[in-house]
Specification:
The chain is of the alpha+beta class. The chain has helices at residues 4-17, 30-37, 41-53, 83-90, 152-155, 159-166, 185-191, and strands at 57-60, 64-67, 94-105, 120-130, 133-143, 171-181, 199-208, 213-222. Helices cover 26% and strands 30% of the residues. Residues 2-70 form the HTH gntR-type domain.
Length: 240
Amino acid sequence: MESKYDLIEQDLANKIIHGIYPVNTYLPSENELCELYGTSRETVRKALAMLLELGYIQKIKGKGSIVLDVSRFVFPVSGIKSFKELNQSQDMHSRTKLITLEPRLVPNKTFNLDNDDQLNATYIERLRTVNDEPIIIDIDYILSAVVANIPERVAKNSLYEYFEDELGLDISYATKTITVEKPTEHQRQLLKLPANKDVVVIRSMTYLSDTTLFQFTESIHRADKFSFVDFARRQKMKGH
């Protein structure tokens, strides 16, 4: 027999999927949900916790639960780490070379944005090497509306240390797509690739805890050096 909070979670998820609670609107308050479903606050909180884990909502302190765009979550995201953190945790002996740091517009076509969107950003292109061998080109667009300026010292080091430790940003979640593509001539030269070799491209959009989108990233990997390992938890959503 299903628990009460399972039934509430399924009902709320169905309402989110079918647009009864539209994207970027708030769910009813915990008190309102208690009245609506005739249950306790503890039961409602368990249901909301499940929706949070599944990526249907984001909790915003002092405001409630905002509905996320479920259609964006097409690939499991098990964690958000900076390259510096990966380097330290995996002892990769890597180095970063800053190629470009300049203001640019976010390319709409690259990230499937509306053509009307004109998003000003700081463009950062960096080459990652391991044991002096080039393996990754990281391209970041940091929205100027959120982070107005990125010093060169930051671009050469760790963006996330700067965002979190110096600016106090609360980085929360990301969406990712992974594709295999032909590299541009510029990318081929940086990665020292033969003409017939493909690259693996990971494109992501990263959000703050208040659901503000602030970062677009393209990570271009040499396919022969690319290995992707992920962990995804099976969650059954009955009746959807």
